[in-house]
Amino acid sequence: xxxxxxxxxxxxxxxxxxxxxxxxxxxxxxxxxxxxxxxxxxxxxxxxxxxxxxxxxxxxxxxxxxxxxxxxxxxxxxxxxxxxxxxxxxx
Length: 91
Prior knowledge:
Layout: H1 2-11, H2 16-28, H3 32-53, H4 59-68, H5 74-82
Helix pairs in contact: 1-2, 3-5
């Protein structure tokens, strides 16, 4: 638990109380890991879209496109946004 608190304080810049709550949530909430994994996948997809589009990349357009895809699963979102040869969700 203390390692989790330290992580949230150092990596997410949370105050002690908030860091402790997040660490506790990560310990007891089974959905927390799924949320964190989804965030990592979305962040990688954004990074890959930015690399693919270069100067043409727009954060607003990226998020508009993701939201426009509705509830598609991440592999299908990735293919729709980056093409069929986009590669793995996470490395």
